[in-house]
Specification:
Blueprint: H1 2-23, E1 28-29, E2 32-33, E3 49-53, H2 58-69, E4 73-80, H3 93-107, E5 111-115, H4 117-133, H5 140-163, E6 168-171, E7 176-179, E8 186-189, H6 206-209, E9 212-213, H7 221-230, H8 234-238, H9 254-258, E10 267-270, E11 276-280, E12 291-296, E13 299-307, E14 312-317, E15 325-336, E16 350-356, E17 364-370, E18 376-385, E19 392-397, E20 400-410
Parallel strand pairs: 3-4, 3-6, 4-5, 6-9, 10-14
Antiparallel strand pairs: 1-2, 7-8, 8-20, 10-11, 12-13, 13-14, 15-18, 15-20, 16-17, 16-19, 17-18, 19-20
Helix pairs in contact: 1-4, 2-3, 2-7, 4-5
């Protein structure tokens, strides 16, 4: 059964790899995704057309309500990103689309569904698998926003609107804000600090953001739910929030899901001195800082590192072990949403900003130092626990999100 599954997975991946070579996204130049999407030179006005990405949840549903009340001509669009007919990771896509249709019927706005399963596999899922196989922990949500929602979907909507001869805006239910007051399009944090999603939008370029609206950016989540109940969307409010990755499904454990696609052998779990303390199930199943689920002695063990070459999982005892903390990292593939700040235009140029290495982490002052055109050193004023290669480091100037990069190396003194 395992051999049959691995063979089927290999065939599927070769097939989609061939599609990827034919349909992969265009190159990224200076942090901007090349596309047919033309930047907007003005601000949205009542009476304009808006295409709203809808998921069937409360955030996008209330976004539809607000946009229509403000006088926009709203059309809902549902993205189908995962093929549920032949995958074990089950999404509730059909149920969600029925909820989108119900909300749109209630508000008397049109809606349609667009299939992005091929693009999602090529540009998000395949890259996610590749990263896990290399022993790093990627962030598919950041990739999906850049490549699919604010990439392929926005491009498709822009082409259809330009054909119709009218300027059309694109909206989502993200908790973030857009500021067009200075002649540029800035991405700002959402007013509700507990729900701010600018971290996940940090790889979306200014060209795309210039056509975007975030109707919920100024609202707290509690008010959004109140508005939904006021408009009779009780069933939508009661739906559980989507907190995980779509392709995993609601009941699947992420490591079990990945094991269907990744062939990674088990190996030794070792302490800092190289002593074997147990066995790991495959390096892809572990994230820096998380529990290692290794039973050795009376201590609880945590993941401090991965030695991909020797297939060893490096573990330390105790949640506050010094090896779990670092204050310096190097990031690659850096994207500046509005262009590189002038302080960083030359090698070794530096700038002090606010930084985060994960969603909902409190921001910490950090110094950004340029190493090459796409690599930067980031040094935080205080150490951070559990920094993982492959995740995104994002920086802000106050509420203004400037961009970020992919963590490539971490300076952990005791490893």
């Amino acid at each position: 059964m395992l051999a049959h599954r691995n063979a089927a997975t290999s065939i599927a991946r070769r097939f989609f790899n061939s599609l990827y070579r034919l349909h992969a996204s265009k190159p990224i130049i200076s942090g901007k995704r090349c596309s047919h999407t033309l930047p907007s030179k003005r601000s949205p006005s009542p009476g304009d057309s808006v295409i709203l990405a809808m998921s069937g949840g409360v955030d996008s549903s209330v976004s539809a309500i607000l946009l229509k009340e403000q006088g926009y001509k709203v059309q809902g669009v549902y993205m189908r990103n995962w093929d549920t007919s032949d995958e074990r990771g089950v999404c509730t896509s059909e149920e969600d689309y029925r909820d989108v249709q119900s909300v749109c019927d209630t508000l008397d706005i049109p809606c349609r569904r667009i299939d992005f399963t091929k693009e999602y596999w090529n540009q998000v899922f395949q890259k996610t698998l590749d990263d896990y196989e290399r022993g790093v922990t990627p962030n598919p949500d950041v990739m999906c926003n850049r490549e699919i929602k604010f990439g392929a979907l926005l491009e498709k909507c822009s082409i259809s609107s330009s054909t119709a001869g009218a300027e059309t805006w694109f909206a989502t239910g993200h908790y973030a804000r857009i500021d067009r007051s200075d002649g540029i399009t800035k991405l700002l944090r959402g007013m509700d600090a507990s729900k701010d999603q600018s971290y996940y939008l940090s790889a979306v370029g200014e060209q795309a953001l210039s056509r975007v609206m975030f109707p919920l950016g100024h609202l707290p989540k509690t008010r959004v739910k109140e508005l939904a109940l006021h408009h009779g969307l009780d069933s939508i409010v009661k739906k559980p929030e989507s907190m995980g990755i779509c392709f995993v499904g609601k009941r699947a454990k992420f490591a079990d899901f990945l094991a269907q696609y990744i062939h990674a052998p088990p190996g030794p779990a070792v302490d800092l001195q190289g002593n074997i303390i147990g066995q790991h199930r495959g390096l892809f199943a572990y994230t820096i800082g998380q529990g290692a689920h290794i039973h050795h002695g009376t201590d609880r063990w945590f993941v401090a590192g991965k030695d991909v070459t020797s297939n060893k999982l490096i573990c330390v005892p105790g949640t506050d072990h010094p090896s779990l903390f670092a204050h310096r990292l190097t990031a690659r593939d850096w994207i500046w949403i509005n262009g590189e700040p002038p302080e960083l235009n030359q090698v070794n140029g530096s700038l002090v900003l606010d930084g985060q290495v994960r969603y909902r982490q409190s921001s910490i002052k950090c110094t950004i130092t340029k190493k090459t055109n796409s690599h930067y050193d980031v040094e935080f004023q205080s150490p951070i626990r559990g920094i993982a290669s492959g995740q995104n480091v994002v920086v802000w100037n106050g509420d203004w999100c400037l961009g970020g990069g992919i963590i490539d190396a971490i300076d952990t003194p005791t490893l």
